[in-house]
Specification:
The chain is α+β, with helices and mostly antiparallel strands.
Amino acid sequence: MAFTGDCHKLVIANEGRGGLDGTFVDPPGSVSILIGNSLGSPTHVNIGFQSILENREDLYQSSGVRWVYKGDHNAGIVNNMWDDLEPDKVTLSYDERFAYVSLPENNAIARIDIESYTVNQVLPLGLKNLSLYRTDCSDQDGGANLLHYPIYAMYQPTDIALAVLNNKEYIVSANQGVIKRYAAVDGLTNSFDESERARQISLDNDFDQSAWPASLTTAVNSNQQLGRLLVRESDARDPITQRIKDITAYGTRSFSLWSVYTMQLAYDTVDELETKENEVYPNTFNGDVSNGNQSPLQQKDLRSDDHGPEPTALAVGQSGTIPLIVIGTRTGAIHLYAEELFGLRHQSVHREGQTSQTWNVLYDANQAGDAIITDVGRRSYEDLVSTEANEDTISTETTEDLLLKEVTKDRISTAVMEDLKSTEAIEDLISTEATEDRISTEATEDRIHVSTEAIDDLIPVEDMQISYQQRLPKIRYQQRLRKIFY
C-alpha cells in the first residue's frame, strides 16, 4: 500500500494469489484506490488488467511479461493472463501521478495512472546475464563456492521504492525471485511447480545443449555446481522443439535502479550482496531459517540452490544530504549503500544475532537476530526492520559516518510502523551530478534487454515526458501540504 502525500488516496496491490477453494481458484490481480472524503466513507476504485492484456497476451509474452500458469485445459481449468498477474508492492512517482506495482512472478512492473484510474503499461524487466558474476548455486557443495556460470536470472522484484538521484527518478527493486507453485487440487492430476532442478531436466533430456560449452554440461550434471539449482522450466521451452536452451534462475540476488519512464536498467549491485555476506558473515552465508532444532550455522548454504541471500525488503532515505539505500535479506543481513562521487557504493553489512545454538534456543533468549527480514522502513535516522521468523520489529541506528553500529533489542510498536511514511524520507533525495553519468556499464552490457517497441503504441505515454523541472510547482505544492498534514 502507498498513501499520496496529502493522504487523500491510498493505493493497494491486490495479489489475488491462486489456491484451494474446493477447486482451483486464482482471483484476478488488481490495484485498488481508496479516495478519502469528509463523510468518512472513502470511494473505492478497482483497476484490473484484463482490458490491457486481453487479446494482447502473445504480444506481452513476447516482450517478456510472463504468463506462468495457463491452467489445465484437459481438466477444464482456464487461467487467464490477468488472473496470473500477482501485484505485490506499491510505490508512487515523485509527482504522485503514477503508482508503480511489482509483479514478481511475472517478472514485470505495472504503471498505474492514479488520476485516470487506468493501467498505463505493464513493463517487462528482462534477464540478467550471470556469466560475469560469481554465484553459489548449490546447497551441497560444503559452503560458499562462488563461481562463474553462463546462465541467466529473472529479476522478479518483490519490494520496490522510489529514489530521486541527481534530479532523476528511479524505481529501486529488491530482486528476490519468486517460484509459482500450486498444490494438487480437484481437476489437476498433478500439483503445479514451474521450476525444476537443473540436473533433473538434464536427466530427462529436456535441455537443448547443442550450443553449450562442455563446462556447462558438466556443471549441470553435478550437484556440487548447477545440478541442484532450481531453474525456470514450465514456460522456458522452445515452442517447436519443446526443449530448454538457456538455464534461467529465479531472482538476481541483487537490487537495481530502473528508469521510471522506460523501465530500462540503470544500476545493479551484480554479485555484491552475496560476496559481502560471505566475507563478513560466513557462518550464515545463504542460510535458511527452516528448522528450529538446527542452528544458523547448521543451516548455512541451504538457500544457495534457491535465491542465495534473497533480498526481500528495502528503504530509501538520506543522512544529511547523502542519499542512502538499505537492503534487508532473508539471511537477516542489512546492507547499507550510500551515494558517493561516482555513484552508489556499498558501505557496510550488519547482521544481528548468534549462530551456534539452535533457532529455538536463540529465539527464546532473544538472540536470534533478524531472521527473514520482510520490511524495512525509514524514520529519521533509524531503519525499522520487521522480521518474519521472529515476529518482531527492531530499530537500527544509522550513524553519520554511514556505519550500522548499534542494534537495540527493544520492540517498536506497530503504531510506529503505521505512521511510517516513506515519502517523507525521500522528499529531498537529490544528489550530486556524478550519478547522472554513472550508468552501470557491466549491468547494462550483460543484461538481455527486452524490446517494448511493439507495445509502445498500445498505451499513450506522452504524459510521461513531462520534465522534472516542469513538475516542480506541483511538487512544491505537495511539499507544503505535507507540512500542513504532518
